[in-house]
């Protein structure tokens, strides 16, 4: 169908840590050029102490002695506590410029999101000051507090000891990053899932209720449904022809699989695939979410009527009739409203996996 030219379509450990494992001696220097096995690695840990209503800060204090025990003999450990929004971005950029071997996000997806954005500046990767050889700072993650949806794609648990063991081993893999652009606006980066309309509006409201843990997503969704209307959107995939998607309820661009506290919304996505999975929900009513919620969480919703999945390297999304009211978010962070373009940056960051 065509619509206006568009196709339709051995030390005491904190109580939350498991039994101690043997001390490993296989601490890797990763893939950074110029590294040697005898050089101590410089690791910067970025912590939002107020995350998860202060739970992240409390757990971090318990974890830090054990982390020093496991890594202190081989690494220089720097602890950086954030003091407000975007602070983690600034800390990350400075750490990379100073030649840190790894910047480790400690907390949930919000902290990880800011750290990832700190890897870039002015549309380019941040690099070490006066580096005469290629040098790559790695990204690390210790899920604390409410945990991490991004970690679920790799099958990682929320046990911080598991995360520390990954740091001890130091194995690296390249992961993709999404970049979001708007005419006349700054670039914004994401590593997990970006989404549009109802789910983004629910995320915006959920952010006000984080003190309730994962229940905040339920509260946010209920609030988002009030006054919600499905909208016709124009979409262009991989710089091709514009297509009409009528009655869109939500559109999700997955670099990874999970969002919203464990909902497997883009079940075929993976941050090493070199492409997004784009999942569109059309003409959903409030009762559809109730009836199909188990399928959304289980990742079995792609066979449901009015659900479309496709792969894309880039996707542009606009309203057919502009209202400046269609929410956009990435990694749970509110970015504003349509229009936006989403593009993949394959292998943009080296991650400790």
UniProtKB/TrEMBL annotation:
Pfam families: DAGK_cat (PF00781), YegS_C (PF19279). One of its GO terms (biological process) is phospholipid biosynthetic process. GO terms for cellular component: membrane. Keywords: ATP-binding, Kinase, Nucleotide-binding, Transferase. PROSITE patterns: DAGK. Residues 38-184 form the DAGKc domain. It comes from the Eukaryota. GO terms for molecular function: ATP binding; kinase activity. InterPro entries: ATP-NAD_kinase_N, Diacylglycerol/lipid_kinase, Diacylglycerol_kinase_cat_dom, Lipid_Phosphate_FormReg, NAD/diacylglycerol_kinase_sf, YegS/DAGK_C. This is DAGKc domain-containing protein. It comes from Tagetes erecta (African marigold).
